[in-house]
Design brief:
240 residues; mainly alpha; Arc Repressor Mutant, subunit A; Tetracycline Repressor, domain 2; 2 domains; 13 helices; 64% helix; elongated; disordered N terminus; disordered C terminus
Length: 240
């Protein structure tokens, strides 16, 4: 099992003292992170100031220093939050019940759902994490490759089970698949023609078509998917 390091104690962002703010501390911190993600998404990290974030949040700039020391701390917390949320969503599916090709399909749907419901954090994670030095990024994210490694792990299991083409390089296949999934934030429109569910099913069909063996493709047939599709909730419950 790939371990994801808990870096909370090492991130330099400080938790603020309880000074009777109008909003509870945790609620205000969550609001600041949401605002920061959106402003970084709209303007880019370099062009965003702490004053921009304070203005959008509706607080004084000085109030931000109860929570962070620098803008980089704010970015680091956003990156860590996105990384941990992605792992919490994907890992129960990757390590849960069901044959590998169905688990891989479930991971694709889960990834699509995350990107479609939080485009801002996805964009910030993909484009702004390079703003941190390699060491700082390691301190914040731990194993930066933990997420793609889960895809690679399930692909290897699928090959061993005869469900995924053995000629495919698992590492390269995982990178190609995730790269395609990550591009979704650039063109998905929440009020557009295609819902996240429809897009997720399309990604499953297109993404797995070229890697599945005949047996794997048969397992993905609609009649079997309904019976075998792994449930995120059941998978998580089983792991507890």
């Amino acid at each position: 099992m790939i371990k994801f390091q808990n870096t909370e104690a090492r991130v330099s962002a400080r938790k603020p003292p309880d000074r009777g703010a109008r909003k509870p501390r945790d609620e205000r911190w969550a609001q600041i992170l949401n605002v920061a993600a959106q402003v970084f998404f709209e303007k880019g990290y370099d062009a965003t100031s702490l004053q921009d974030i304070a203005n959008r949040t509706g607080i004084l700039k000085g109030s931000l220093y109860y929570y962070i020391e620098t803008k980089e701390d704010l970015l680091g917390n956003l990156l860590r939050e996105a990384h941990e949320k992605g792992l919490r969503s994907i890992r129960p599916i990757a390590e849960g019940p069901g044959d590998p090709i169905l688990r891989l399909a479930g991971m694709i749907r889960c990834h699509v759902d995350y990107v479609c419901t939080d485009r801002a954090r996805t964009a910030v994670f993909l484009h702004e994490r390079q703003r941190l030095s390699p060491q700082r990024r390691k301190d914040v994210l731990g194993d930066e490759h933990a997420y793609p490694n889960l895809f690679q792990q399930v692909i290897v299991e699928g090959q061993k089970a005869g469900l995924i083409q053995p000629r495919l390089d698992p590492h390269l296949t995982a990178l190609c698949l995730i790269g395609s999934l990550n591009s979704l934030y650039e063109w998905f429109q929440p009020m557009g023609k295609h819902s996240a569910t429809v897009i997720g099913e399309h990604y499953v069909a297109v993404g797995l078509a070229g890697m599945a063996t005949l047996e794997g493709a048969a397992n993905l047939a609609p009649s079997k998917v309904k019976k075998k599709r792994p449930s995120v909730r059941k998978a998580a419950t089983k792991r507890r």
